[in-house]
Amino acid sequence: MKNIVIFGAPGSGKGTQSQLLVEKYGLRHISTGDVLRAEIKNGTELGQTAKAYIDKGQLIPDSLMIEILATTYDALCPCSGVIFDGFPRTIPQAEALKQMLAERGTRVSAMLELQVPDEMLLERLLNRGKTSGRADDNEETIRARLDVYHAQTQPLAEWYEREGKRNTVRGYGEIEEINRALCTIIDSIPENA
Ligand code: AMP
Q1: Which of 29, 60, 63, 95 has most ligand 1 atoms within 8 Å of its beta carbon, as the pocket-test mutant?
Q2: Each residue of 163-190: pLDDT tens digit?
Q3: Which residues are annotated as catalytic?
Q4: Rounded Cα–Cα distance for residues 2 and 81 (Å)
Q5: Pairing between strand 110-115 and 82-85?
Q6: Could you give the CA distance from residue 60 to residue 80 in angstroms, rounded to a whole number?
Q7: What CATH number does residue 114 fall under?
Q8: Is the entire prediction scored with pTM above 0.85?
């Protein structure tokens, strides 16, 4: 059982790399951004609440997000392992994930951090905005999301470092090359980690 947290700024390639890892390792994929966008599309109350934050590039409050994560996880698992993509984004979320998994007899095996310079992130997200149809892929919201990332999410890297789970990878260059680097790390995780 391998539970992986894929970590990085908006536009760092978490979604792309998650897909490749899902195919290779047969893991389940939980993207909290995708979960929220589905709620918005379905016009649910939760979707309406989430949209107000997403459109401003802000984070959904921790308590709500933690509840959504647990519901999503329990709908998919028990399973052979999960890639958490876009969660956790704050230290309280990381602590809640740790506790939630412990209550279910498992844990995060590794955190994989994709490191990409901000100018490159901005360029990638502006490009993605041309085709993604995502309301938050516009310059003003992208800049807000990057600010939120540095202020609220980046400090989590140190948290995972202290947990002994942090692994960093250069998140630019060829997609396959980045994927190989991630696979090398995953393959080196001890079975009981
Ligand atoms: P993403 O698709 O991961 O870039 O997420 C898009 C937006 O959804 C973010 O900018 C947040 O507004 C919201 N969101 C997704 N995951 C989380 C999370 N773990 N905590 C708070 N907000 C989130």
Answers
A1: 60
A2: 999 999 999 999 999 999 999 999 999 8
A3: 14, 89, 128, 134, 145
A4: 5
A5: unpaired
A6: 28
A7: 3.40.50.300
A8: yes
